[in-house]
Amino acid sequence: LFGLPEQAPHERVLLATDPATGLKAILAVHSTARGPAFGGCRLWHYESEAAALNDALRLSQGMSLKNALADLPFGGGKAVILKPEGQFDRPALFAAFGRAVQSLNGAYITAEDVGTTTADMRGMQAVTPYVSGIPREGAFGGDPSPKTAWGVFVSIRAGARLVLGRSSLEGVRVALQGLGAVGWHLAEFLHQAGAKLVVADVDTAKVERAVAQFGAVAAHVGEILAADVDVLAPCALGASLNEQTVPAIHAKLIAGAANNQLATPADGDALQRRGICYLPDYLVNAGGIISVAREYRNEGEEQAVMAEVSKIAERVEELLQRVQAADSTPARVADDWARSKLVRPA
Ligand code: NAI
Predict the structure, then answer these.
(1) What percent of the chain clears pLDDT 70, i.e. is strictly above it?
(2) 302-310 vs 145-162: helix axis angle to the nearest 10?
(3) Closest protein CA for atom 6 of ligand 1
């Protein structure tokens, strides 16, 4: 079904519609084995309803694996809203979406993802408590993207040491695909650590800013994946690592924020055959969900959250050890590792 691996049955999938606001959304609860399904809400223009469903199913499954590997007491879920054509009343649309979240009675908790904002999340609070990622006066919370970027950064640093044999990121060349919320923060961290950046974004204003601020080299969006660099960080949308792109990649290490970077599991195998180490997206990009999960449980405190996000580097190290022992690929080993944790935490 929809190109999904057969071992991915979902517990519940809700199609929510509201003609008054134009809402058409899919809320996918993949697993609640570890706790309520937690994962962001994407607002996107999809080619078809089938494409939206496919995205929701793939992303929610990824959240189960992400939350399990991050040792969070949450299952995996995700929602997608099919962006209405033309003008629409955004607060009303999100209120209707919030009611759909509420109808699941806490089986699914939402937060920001691509196309949704902290303001959208705050607006939903009036209709459901099952929402996170909301900035609050004097309290921890809000935009998870800096935490996501920090997790990717510590993963790149660990990978550079373990895979490239570099003791620091000074002079390490990193190609960044996408300078959005996460990509921009990641560029800042990398620049501060002395990395040399090559960047691409369809939004050329962001590229110009990165050139001015970080001394980055601009690349064409069609060429960034094949840039002559040590590390590749895909931080735009999914399926960027595929049959067409993998053969041209020069980087020896891939670690980025984008969800579902591998178009198919075979693309992970192809990377391994080319001697490229791919650190699985859901392992390295868990910083954001760690942040919103802490906020949701009222356990948010900046330093504690950053420390928890930094632990992603230890998992990268453990993964690479497991890969050696299993003589397999990081993607396959991480999948097995995460699936073994799809049970309620003790
Ligand atoms: P964003 O929407 O702020 O940034 C995406 C950026 O990619 C935009 O600047 C956009 O112009 C650019 N872009 C789009 N297509 C491109 C292309 N073909 N080539 C180059 N650039 C392109 O999104 P955000 O929040 O930064 O997320 C990036 C990725 O990370 C997404 O896949 C998201 O699902 C994932 N992610 C984000 C988290 C977060 O905390 N925001 C958490 C975990 C994953």
Answers:
(1) 98
(2) 30
(3) 180
Give the distance (Å) from ligand 1 centre to CA of residue 240: 12
Catalytic residue among 24, 78, 196, 206: 78
d(CA 203, CA 75): 34
| Domain architecture of the chain: domains with CATH | 12-124 (3.40.50.10860), 145-285+315-334 (3.40.50.720)
Residues 256-278 pLDDT 10s = 999 999 999 999 999 999 999 99
Q: Please say whether the beta carbons of 294 and 286 come within 8 A.
A: no
* Ligand 1: lining residues by beta carbon, under 6 Å: 113-114, 144-145, 148, 177-183, 200-203, 206, 221, 235-237, 257-259, 285, 288
CA of 328 relative to ligand 1 center, distance in Å: 29
Alpha carbon of 206 to ligand 1 centroid (Å)? 12
Question: What are the tokens at 234?
Answer: 């895909």
Say which DSSP state 243 is in. T
Query: Ligand 1 mean position to 288 CA, how many Å?
Result: 13
Distance, in Å, from the CA atom of 314 to the CA atom of 68, rounded to the nearest integer, reads 15
Q: How sure is the predictor about 137, in pLDDT bands with cuts at 50, 70 and 90?
A: confident
Mutate to test the pocket of ligand 1, among 65, 72, 202 (most ligand atoms within 8 A of CB): 202
Q: Report helix, strand or coil for 34.
A: coil
ipTM of the shown complex:
0.99
Query: What average pLDDT does the segment 309-325 reach?
Result: 97
pLDDT tens-place string over residues 52-76: 999 999 999 999 999 999 999 999 9
Q: Is 78 a catalytic residue?
A: yes
CA torsion angle for 313, 317, 318, 319 (degrees, to 10)?
A: 100
Task: Look at residue 31 and give its three-state secondary structure.
Answer: strand
Residue ID of nearest Cα to ligand 1 atom 1: 180
C-beta atoms surrounding 314 within 10 Å: 11
Q: What is the pLDDT of residues 150-196, one digit of tens each?
A: 999 999 999 999 999 999 999 999 999 999 999 999 999 999 999 99
